[in-house]
Amino acid sequence: MKAQEVLKQIKTGAVKNFIVLSGEDDAQVRQAFHATLSALDIQMPELNLSVFEDRPEPLAVVRSLETLPFMGERRVVVIKNTDILSSAASGELSAPFEKANLPAQNVLLIVQRGKADKRKAFVKYVMKNGMFVECNVMKDNELTAYIVQAAKRKNLLISARNAQALAALSDGDMGVIKSELEKLSSVCRGDITADDIEKYAVKSMQYNVYKIHDLMVGGHAREAYALIERMLAEDSNPIGFLTLLANNFRQMLVARACRDARFPEQKIISHIMQATGAWEFAARRALAQCKQFTARQIRRALEKLAQMDFDAKQGIISLKTDLYPLLVDIYMNANKKG
After folding, report:
1. Which residues form the DNA polymerase III delta N-terminal domain (predicted)?
2. Which of 22, 103, 117, 172 could be 87's S-S partner, Cβ–Cβ 3.0 to 4.6 Å?
């Protein structure tokens, strides 16, 4: 069930006693939680809303669930930032909820961290008798369509190509995408152009990594150097830069191995996503770019990046002076035979 379906049902009065929000996309889960809580329209929340976190004592939750609402239509009990429905959690943490003697109008809303384990008895019960929402990471085409529609709701037009660019700038983070669309809607009139995105959208660290990676792979070392200089001028030791760059090479190594094994393209993309947790667009990039490196060159790059990361943390080297020469060494090697 999608979050929008739940909201629609709540607004028509078809509220169920149990609502579970779960999935891989934290931003979507957070948005679904706030929208659901708002739709439930809790009167006198100071008396009719109870919030638990992590792994609360089940009986405390049950007692709250069984309490009648006071001067309001319903009482809502929330368990958020929890993993009680994960495969790692004991079934005893959720089993008592199903047997609670709760008033017909009361609601238990669980906001699960990550995916819920559908083998759990309580999860099966909610899927059958309640509202079970999965907020999973969107595929590229879904994310593009979402951005186009979100812009349209703000009376703006954005092409699929520019929507993809905005998704890449935001590293696919739904929270960042919403924030950037809000900003763009305040400065754009009619269309959101590529120039608007380049000028106004905040570039994530991942975007800068992609850009530097693309420039170096494409042989545009001077432009890459200028971007590195700008980045280091803002932060002389950007935390996570080398890790993100290494992630690119890990994705490329998986792609290269699959390609060498003559896997079909779609299977390679699926395998990259599964093995590295990459977004679909990142997996496609890795497949396209791995062709310029041998598996040996990619492994060498990963070793050098790991060594530089260690040396930088120990204070042995400075990214300001040593990062660019390392990148030249790594990427220029791609033009030589492995």
Report:
1. 21-136
2. 117
